[in-house]
Specification:
Order of helices and strands: HHH
Number of helices: 3
Oligomer: single chain
Length: 79
């Protein structure tokens, strides 16, 4: 995966930064942050579909990405 995709997904999905925080960190607009995240997630979806047939292309992004709850505390998804 390209470094810019890794970086922006790390900031959003692992470090739980807001769009505004990511924009400030990277020196880009919030709109650019959102579009880059969408492209990076699509890249992950394509990679998973190619490498792991158990992750079908029709799966929802929320199957792979979880945002922290409103209180900001992260917990693993429960099926």
């Amino acid at each position: 995966m390209p470094e810019p995709h890794r970086e922006i997904l790390t900031l959003r999905n692992l470090l739980h930064h807001s769009y505004e925080e990511i924009a400030a960190t990277l020196g880009i607009s919030v709109g650019t942050v959102k579009s880059r995240i969408a492209r990076a997630r699509e890249n992950v979806r394509s990679l998973l579909a190619a490498m792991c047939p158990e992750f079908p292309p029709e799966a929802e992004l929320r199957d792979w990405f979880e945002s922290p709850p409103v209180g900001g505390r992260y917990s693993a998804a429960v099926a």
